[in-house]
Amino acid sequence: MINKILTIALILTGTALFGQQQGKYFFTRSGHIEYTLGGNWSGTKSIWFDDYGMLMRTHTQSTSTVSLAGITSTTTENKLEIRQGKDVWVVDLLTNTGSKSDIALQTGIGRNMTEGKSDEELHQMERKVITDMGATITGYETFLGKKCMTFTWGTTKFSQYKGIPLKSDITQGGVLTLLETATSFEENITVPASKFEVPQNIEFQQGGGLAEMLEGLEGAGEFQEDAGEENGTPPGLSFERFSSATKNVNIPGFTFFMSDNSGGIYLTSFAKSETEQVIFFMENEARFYEIARGGEGMIVESSYTIDGHDAVFINITNEDDGTPTNSRSLLIRMPEHQAVLYIIASLPMSKSELEGIIRQIRL
């Protein structure tokens, strides 16, 4: 089932990218940071945190404009995220809807990693996390009176203080540029408890946490075995070509995270936050016919043709354990590569949005 594949992808992305500093998100007790947004988006971001980031409020108001293939799209966002220990609420203030997720497993792992460590040990751990994910540390600079470590990760440049990015410059494909620059930073202050209160009168959809995702791995393995010999990597395309074609795709607000070739599936993932990911997959062509039928937790909303290829747009309504989700997927059959290419978004993107993303891929 496609939602089992989504489970695996979110584990790969969530654990490796965001799980390293859980428990102590930041290595300073409390603070308030104001950012300005630039490049292809404009607006502001405000962060309040306490208990080393275990309590955190992030409010982002932005407008982004991207032009691709002669088509210009504008997206407006007014989003609030509240973190209280293992619970995370994400609220769309434009629609007064939201989701709640449980990140207890990540929090526990991170707390074990950071508990009892001195500032120097935390700094060395921070450096190791950065280099382990493939980034290059370029030095240090003083910004807003703070000694910040600078590093590059692909085409992204960061200036980070005690785990907190104070400047970031994300460039994708030479087209999309997202700038985020802190304009003020108050450190080790008293933060009112009201800052971390969850808004009332919001309809929250329960999201699955990493613990629930891990429980689905055994079932995912059984699925691969039951599917027979037709599963596996596409015979007509190398992983190197897939990775090269997908890792520079422009997805506003998302950053390339990783490409992977394991378990008979090609995978490239992009991440915006712990709960927002976009993942590309490619595997044997026979999987198209299986997934295109839909199934439990998957609603086929449209079967059609895109650029001469059979395509299916799917609404993923719940994970295999019944946990509600609101994800979307677009599948495209590519007989020229004996493959199926599909994109899964862990948020409710429209069919046209997914088409705009996947049309950037040149195989």
Backbone structural class = alpha+beta
Over the alpha carbons, how many angstroms does the gyration radius reach?
A: 21 Å
The H-and-E topology, N to C, reads as: HEEEEEEHHEEEEEEHHHEEEHEEEEH
Side by side, the strands of the main sheet go 7-8-9-10-11-1-2-3-4-5-6-12
Instruction: Please report the first level of CATH classification, the CATH class of the largest domain.
Output: Mainly Beta
Structure in words:
The protein has 363 residues and is an alpha+beta fold. Helix content is 22%, strand content 47%. It contains eight helices and 19 strands. The chain has a twelve-stranded mixed sheet with strand order 7-8-9-10-11-1-2-3-4-5-6-12. The chain has a seven-stranded antiparallel sheet with strand order 13-14-15-19-18-17-16, with helices on both faces.
Offer a concise description of the structure.
The protein has helices spanning 2-18, 104-114, 119-132, 210-215, 217-226, 239-246, 286-291, 351-358, and strands at residues 31-39, 41-50, 55-68, 71-84, 87-92, 97-102, 136-143, 146-153, 156-161, 164-172, 176-187, 203-206, 255-262, 265-273, 276-284, 298-306, 309-318, 324-334, 339-345. It is of the alpha+beta class.
